[in-house]
Recover the amino acids of this structure.
């Protein structure tokens, strides 16, 4: 229980900037309006859009809120807050099979543009899975970024997991080929591959990801392939654009949203969840290994609005 409490308080402090931007605006709106009218909805819409929930998601939330207010014959703005919280939670859901890869022989492909915290996320996830008793291996298939192999080697040492790496500028698919075969030979539970993150040339990236995927399917057909895209929460709506671009070239099964502790745009977690129809599975709220947390929509919204759950 105390561990759960610790996670919640870390999440709460990680979302401080977003809470200050979004929730304080909502609170002052609720205290500033006594009745619920068009002006009230208009201001609420503006606050949610500014909080990076995006236009589409905000429209959905406002529509649902209007329906509930009508149904329940609510007259006072202050009574509307819990309905808003519930309405936001409804925009997000994580399937109970979301983390199936943890319990099967699997290959996790970590994709995303450079600078989003991709290699760090590989290291943190490897550390967490290792701590939970899994046999984990990482592959340094981001061979084009000078520091990526070195950085991942440090993380592998820290997490005490095996690493397969090639030379800088070597063929990423060749590294994955070696890693997949090493994972099978060493009876590894989860192989996590760090991949190159260059979006400026989509055709090359597409080819590279397809080639990697073909190798996994051919060499290790029994493995479950999990493709996680890492997005930087501080970029707000740009993160959503990146996710959509990558979704064209890879079969994304989950989203990792990093750097939420450094941004007022944490509402993007809600927007991405709703618009992509791909679940946010992990969020990063700090530098430590344990600051990569599984995404729980209820916990997230409760931490955002400081709702204490017993």
């Amino acid at each position: 229980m105390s561990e759960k409490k610790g996670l919640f308080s870390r999440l709460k402090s990680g979302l401080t900037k977003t809470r200050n931007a979004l929730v304080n605006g909502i609170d002052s709106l609720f205290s500033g309006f006594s009745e619920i009218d068009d002006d009230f909805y208009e201001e609420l819409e503006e606050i949610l859009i500014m909080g990076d929930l995006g236009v589409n998601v905000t429209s959905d939330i406002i529509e649902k809120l209007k329906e509930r207010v009508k149904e329940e014959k609510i007259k006072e703005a202050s009574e509307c807050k819990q309905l808003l919280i519930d309405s936001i939670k409804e925009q997000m859901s994580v399937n109970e099979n979301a983390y199936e890869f943890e319990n099967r022989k699997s290959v996790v492909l970590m994709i995303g543009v450079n600078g989003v915290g991709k290699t760090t996320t590989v290291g943190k996830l490897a550390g967490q899975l290792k701590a939970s008793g899994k046999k984990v291996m990482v592959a340094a298939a981001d061979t084009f970024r000078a520091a990526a192999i070195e950085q991942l080697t440090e993380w592998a040492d820290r997490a005490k997991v095996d690493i397969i790496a090639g030379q800088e500028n070597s063929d990423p698919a060749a590294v994955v080929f070696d890693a997949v075969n090493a994972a099978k030979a060493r009876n590894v539970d989860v192989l996590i591959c760090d991949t190159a993150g260059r979006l400026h040339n989509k055709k090359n990236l597409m080819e590279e990801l397809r080639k990697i995927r073909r190798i996994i399917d051919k060499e290790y057909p029994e493995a479950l392939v999990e493709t996680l895209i890492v997005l930087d929460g501080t970029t707000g709506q740009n993160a959503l654009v990146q996710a959509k671009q990558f979704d064209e070239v890879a079969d994304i099964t989950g989203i990792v949203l990093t750097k939420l502790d450094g941004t007022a745009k944490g509402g993007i977690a809600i927007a991405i969840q709703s618009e992509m129809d791909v679940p946010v599975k992990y969020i990063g709220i700090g530098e430590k290994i344990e600051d990569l947390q599984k995404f729980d929509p209820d916990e997230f919204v409760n931490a955002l609005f400081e709702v204490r759950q017993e």
Residues 100-294 form a domain with the Rossmann fold fold (CATH 3.40.50.300). The chain has two domains: 2-90, 100-294. The mean pLDDT is 89. The two ends are 10 Å apart (CA to CA).
